């Protein structure tokens, strides 16, 4: 469904939490609505107890921001909302303001497919506070989900070590949009295609698949089913061999393949969907090779994930390609990424920027203030550490970064001896898109290139090393001063 077209609206402005609109109204009432602020979208820990995360969802977020406006139907709905005195909640002049309001924030973001880490701003929004606030919920919805699934997909593809992974998740995904955005993120993470035809069509990625057990059940016996499928689609046949008895199914697939290949076609392979996938794949490989069908690939499916793929590889399973649904598109072992969107600075009427934090019992959970950028350092072509800093800070010469979870751990980084790059790039300037959209294949390639630059100790699934992410010293101290100040205020 194209949600943008529901109720004659071309915008998703109402896809927000109600409190964003009541706060927007409050800002407007107090004439604060045009006061500039900076918000950062970041997460606090890598999903799946992993050592890294893959950023995804930016293009969807840009599309949302480009279309952001309140149409007549949105305004009519807001006008209908009443307070507990049964009178309209919102002033007509506020509704008029929303009608004519144009999104004019500056947005910077880390590109999709980039390896990212906790506390780094994936998106930074700077502009009128009312606008920054209204987009919080939708941005989080988009980025949290796609980043989570892209990360799961990257882990699964790392386990598959370059063998093709087909995403088969439509039937188990979280609703319609959940399936399409999961397909998008799974492709960015490294999957070679999807069984979801609508997603393949919209994303311009390969539509892939085999056949179901129902195909075999629909015929009198398995040989008849295989012959019929291969006759109908001789250039796209992968036989599902486990409907009745897998070893017999493999023999039947071989017989059917030989007949079609005698006519000059090449059968793609077979799929195993139950039983001991290590043993059965080895058996199938042996039988296929003995029949001179070395080119036929063996696809495996059945509740697979990165851990089972690794285990099957350790068992020397003869599997060439993987079909993965449920555990990929639902991010089965961690259903959500806990990304948040926090106010980090606010501009006064005189143009001075003030730092802002949200206090927490655990100081590691206190957000980083300021107008942040992330600098990534490389040593011998490998990622060596990231530094979160305030972009107004002069970074010529060596800089010290401090680990927020253990301030005794510090690192001196010098631009002169290490190569480095800033990760946040301009996306919207004064609300106008300045970002060149990239083909989705480029995003997938970025994921793979980025993972190649990451030490393998950080990519392992069990007890991965923690990649060093620090806060530049002066910013670290500013944050500490604010924590002390607000803690004193709390006590006083
Ligand atoms: N060699 C293996 N090592 C580890 N796990 C395996 C191996 N072979 C299969 N598995 C996994 O074990 C789980 C159970 O598979 P199994 O085929 O026994 O049960 P099932 O899915 O209930 O089968 P069925 O579809 O016939 O009901 C699946 O997640 C499957 O991927
Ligand atoms: O296992 P997943 O990773 O989710 O991959 C998708 C599954 O969907 C299909 O099964 P089907 O819907 O026929 O049900 P099944 O689980 O009983 O095989 C297919 O045969 C896979 O097993
Ligand atoms: O094409 C397949 O094999 C397929 C598609 C969806 C779900 N399971 C398998």
Automatic annotation (TrEMBL):
GO cellular component: cytosol
Pfam families according to UniProt: NAPRTase, NAPRTase_C, NAPRTase_N
UniProt superkingdom: Bacteria
Keywords: Glycosyltransferase, Ligase, Phosphoprotein, Pyridine nucleotide biosynthesis, Transferase
Domain Nicotinate phosphoribosyltransferase N-terminal: 14-144
Pathway(s) where this gene product acts: Cofactor biosynthesis; NAD(+) biosynthesis; nicotinate D-ribonucleotide from nicotinate: step 1/1
Family: Belongs to the NAPRTase family.
Functional summary from the UniProt entry: Catalyzes the first step in the biosynthesis of NAD from nicotinic acid, the ATP-dependent synthesis of beta-nicotinate D-ribonucleotide from nicotinate and 5-phospho-D-ribose 1-phosphate.
Protein name (database record): Nicotinate phosphoribosyltransferase
């Amino acid at each position: 469904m194209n949600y943008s077209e529901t109720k004659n609206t071309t915008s998703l402005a109402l896809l927000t939490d109600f409190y964003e609109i009541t706060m927007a109204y409050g800002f407007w009432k107090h004439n604060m609505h045009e006061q500039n602020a900076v918000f950062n979208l970041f997460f606090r820990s890598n999903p799946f107890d992993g050592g890294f995360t893959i950023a995804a969802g930016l293009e969807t977020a840009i599309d949302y921001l480009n279309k952001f406006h309140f149409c007549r139907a949105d305004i009519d709905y807001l006008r209908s909302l009443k307070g507990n005195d049964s009178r309209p909640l919102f002033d007509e002049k506020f509704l008029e303001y929303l009608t004519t309001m144009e999104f004019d924030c500056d947005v910077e973001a880390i590109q999709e497919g980039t390896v990212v880490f906790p506390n780094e701003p994936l998106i930074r929004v700077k502009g009128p506070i009312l606008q920054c606030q209204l987009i919080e919920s939708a941005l989080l919805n988009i980025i949290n989900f796609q980043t989570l699934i892209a990360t799961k997909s990257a882990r699964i593809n790392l386990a598959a070590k370059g063998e093709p992974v087909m995403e088969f998740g439509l039937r188990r995904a979280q609703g319609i949009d959940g399936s399409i955005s999961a397909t998008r993120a799974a492709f960015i993470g490294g999957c070679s295609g999807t069984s979801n035809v609508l997603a393949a069509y919209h994303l311009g990625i390969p539509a892939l698949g085999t056949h179901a057990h129902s195909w075999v059940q629909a015929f009198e016996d398995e040989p008849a089913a295989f012959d019929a499928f291969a006759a109908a689609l001789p250039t796209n046949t992968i036989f599902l061999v486990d409907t009745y008895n897998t070893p017999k199914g493999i023999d039947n697939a071989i017989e059917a393949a030989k007949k079609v290949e005698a006519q000059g076609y090449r059968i793609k392979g077979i799929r195993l969907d139950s039983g001991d996938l290590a043993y059965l794949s080895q058996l199938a490989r042996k039988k296929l090779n003995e029949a001179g069908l070395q080119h036929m690939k063996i696809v495996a499916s059945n509740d697979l994930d990165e851990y089972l793929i690794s285990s099957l590889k350790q068992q020397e399973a003869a599997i060439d390609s993987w079909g993965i649904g449920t555990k990929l598109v639902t991010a089965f072992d961690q259903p959500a990424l806990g990304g948040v969107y926090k106010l980090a600075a606010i501009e006064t009427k005189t143009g001075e920027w003030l730092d802002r934090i949200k206090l927490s019992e655990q100081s590691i959970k206190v957000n980083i203030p300021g107008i942040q950028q992330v600098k990534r350092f490389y040593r011998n072509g490998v990622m060596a550490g990231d530094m979160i800093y305030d972009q107004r800070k002069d970074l010529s010469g060596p800089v010290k970064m401090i680990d927020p979870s253990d301030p005794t751990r510090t690192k001196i980084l010098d631009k002169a001896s290490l190569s480095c790059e800033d990760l946040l790039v301009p996306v919207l300037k004064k609300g106008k898109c300045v970002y060149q959209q990239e083909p989705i294949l480029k995003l997938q390639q970025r994921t793979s290139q980025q993972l190649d630059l990451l030490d393998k100790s950080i990519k392992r699934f069990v007890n991965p090393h923690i990649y060093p992410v620090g806060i530049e010293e002066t910013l670290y101290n500013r944050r500490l001063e604010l924590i002390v100040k607000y803690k004193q205020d709390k006590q006083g």
